[in-house]
Amino acid sequence: MASNPGNVETLRWHGQRLELIDQRALPARLEYVSCTNAVEVAEAIRSMVVRGAPAIGCAAAFGVALEAKRQEHCTRGQFDAAMEIAFRNLAASRPTAVNLFWALDRMRAALGRETRDDPKSAAARLARAAVELFNADLETNRAIGRAGAAHVPDGARVLTHCNTGALATAGHGTALGVIRSARDQGKRISVVATETRPYLQGARLTAWELIQEKIPVTLITDNMAGHLMRLGKIDLVLVGADRIAANGDVANKIGTYTLAVLAERHHIPFYVAAPLSSVDMAVADGGSIPIEERSASEVTGYAGLRWAPEGVNVANPAFDITPAELVSGLFTEKGVVTQPDTRKIRALFPA
Amino acid sequence: MASNPGNVETLRWHGQRLELIDQRALPARLEYVSCTNAVEVAEAIRSMVVRGAPAIGCAAAFGVALEAKRQEHCTRGQFDAAMEIAFRNLAASRPTAVNLFWALDRMRAALGRETRDDPKSAAARLARAAVELFNADLETNRAIGRAGAAHVPDGARVLTHCNTGALATAGHGTALGVIRSARDQGKRISVVATETRPYLQGARLTAWELIQEKIPVTLITDNMAGHLMRLGKIDLVLVGADRIAANGDVANKIGTYTLAVLAERHHIPFYVAAPLSSVDMAVADGGSIPIEERSASEVTGYAGLRWAPEGVNVANPAFDITPAELVSGLFTEKGVVTQPDTRKIRALFPA
Asked: Closest Cα of chain A to B119: distance in Å?
């Protein structure tokens, strides 16, 4: 059994079953979706029952462990074939967050290409690896929180985008984790949350999570951020990341780039909080990060309510790229990288 | 009878009745709301049956004319008292768009403080004045369109915000009027329309109006504009105005300022199309323009569907201020003012 000891248990692991908060139903209803195999976990990721780069990584790891458990009475050949399908299925669920591929690589390593032990032992090893990965994410987020909180002054009015909280991770959160840590240090923090169209993660998830935590939160539409900055009502911007390129360019929820441009104009620090598992040293810069294009129906309305006319064309890129030059600092579990660049990011990884 | 000869008849004047397209119901249903007195027109403005600075001005003028017609059998004393209430009621309907106050001033002038003729003559004069104001708005928009279209190159991909079309005016439109005029000159124009949260005028009204006109339109959420500019997919930004200060600062739909900041970063022209009736020489700069704060319920959901948690704080400024320094050009019925400033704007008005 693994779960977040905090208020919000996004993933609950029961060995033969993974329970996920159905984030599509929040904040109206707090419900769990139960998965017992990799196909169900991949579908939960694709359909955004679970979202947020670190949480997707954890869910995928548990998806591998579930499938291994299910196949543990097969021959090793059948087991390996089934696991290969599970890995592919999970890898195809969403394209942008690199934590997904990082977590799957870790699980592949735990499976061990060379080791040909019996499936039951392999399944047990994979379950341990998934739980370790989950616990490591939680500890990583706390470390990010400690590192980042030093840069959040008492009384800060923090603008955040999308949801980067316990709901987006194993627990605590990345950008929201920094806010939690700052609050836990006794600082008075208030948050302005952008609603984050089209999927409204800010309005639905961040607002809900901060209300649970009793951290003051004001909800705005995405297009109000510039106005508030111009009026001097924002002290810093703090967001997460779905993937960070080797040069420090950041892929994150659509709208992040706009907030970074606005922050620069208003001389407001723009911080990115993310685990090192979000850094993809294999991509040189943001131009090489694939941007997921999601369904038009997310833009033409919400939750069955359609407000755009029939026949309209739609663009729906789920992420955008913020160039490293606009990032004041990167908060990681290994500390803060101010004004990240290729050299500073390479230094985070042991040779 | 006065109405727009184009596809979209936002206001239809029948002498004792004003019909307004109910813009709250678009694009699902094309329905008219009928008003027979000033109170009903003020309520139609307040509740956004009719919106868009020039259309609000026209509606208010017809509201005065309706009330005068209704009171034409009173004594002159009763008539004057009733008209005073009508003017105040209409002036209190919405605070930011200056065209409302401009139109009411024109109607006050037509009423004539000195003239003490019989109410029936006064009512007839007010009806003529309202129709003149309506026809002048239509002609003004065509002149803005001619002036602005010269700055819209063939093949241009134009980003626009909110709705500035026939639905926002007596007809033709301001920013959308420029697009109509450019298309009528044979230019191939495509439009990217921001949905314009919270009230979704872009998704509901601009998308609908451009589909009626067979002008290609792609709908995006507000937070996608920066991403598209960064990818080189936008050639110019073209918006309207609710009020322009004497120094060229522009009050317009919330989100406009952000688009102007993004346009500057990407070296994309940022144009504002507006009649001179939107210029308020009585306010020196944008800091003195009152910004309407609308209901929290517009931000926590849409049309009865609520997605934000109970208890969340909300900010809902309906407009923001774009400083003149970010405006590449102002398209008016008296021609184009490039890089507007106090001197150039003063020159538009005869001493």
From this structure: 45
Q: Hunting for tokens 């339109």 — which residue is that?
A: B217
Same domain, A228 and A287: yes
B122 and B55 in a common domain:
yes
Compute the nearest-CA separation of A48 from chain B (Å): 16
Q: Are residues A212 and A339 in the same domain?
A: yes
- The CATH number of residue A124's host domain is 1.20.120.420
- Shared domain check, B169 and B113: no
| pLDDT by 10s per residue, chain B, length 351 | 576 766 789 999 999 999 999 999 999 999 999 999 999 999 999 999 999 999 999 999 999 999 999 999 999 999 999 999 999 999 999 988 889 999 999 999 999 866 678 999 999 999 999 999 999 999 999 999 999 999 999 999 999 999 999 999 999 999 999 999 999 999 999 999 999 999 999 999 999 999 999 999 999 999 999 999 999 999 999 999 999 999 999 999 999 999 999 999 999 999 999 999 999 999 999 999 999 999 999 999 999 999 999 999 999 999 999 999 999 999 999 999 999 999 999 999 987
DSSP string, A134-150: HHHHHHHHHHHHHHHHT
- Nearest CB among A197, A265, A321 relative to B222 is that of A197
Range of the domain at A64: 11-142
Same domain, A330 and A187: yes
Chain A residues touching residue B199 (CB < 8 angstroms)? none
Task: Sort strands A243-245 and A250-253 into parallel, antiparallel or unpaired.
Answer: antiparallel
Same domain, A126 and A48: yes
Angle B235-B191-B138 (CA atoms, 0-180°, nearest 5)? 110
Determine, yes or no, domain membership for A46.
yes
Whether A6 is in a domain gets the answer no
Q: What would the pLDDT profile of A147-158 be if each residue is shown by its tens digit?
A: 999 999 999 999
Vertex B236 angle, CA B234 and B240, to 5°: 125
**Within 13 Å and on the Cβ side, how many CA atoms surround B258?**
32
Q: Are residues B163 and B103 in the same domain?
A: no
Query: Who contacts A338 (Cβ-Cβ below 8 Å, separation ≥6)?
Result: A328, A329
The interface predicted TM-score (ipTM) is 0.93
Specify the DSSP class assigned to residue B270. Answer: E
Tally the domains of chain A.
2
8 Å CB contact of B221 and A299: yes
- Catalytic pick among B137, B242, B249, B280: B242
* Residue B5 placed within a domain: no
B220-249 residue pLDDT tens: 999 999 999 999 999 999 999 999 999 999
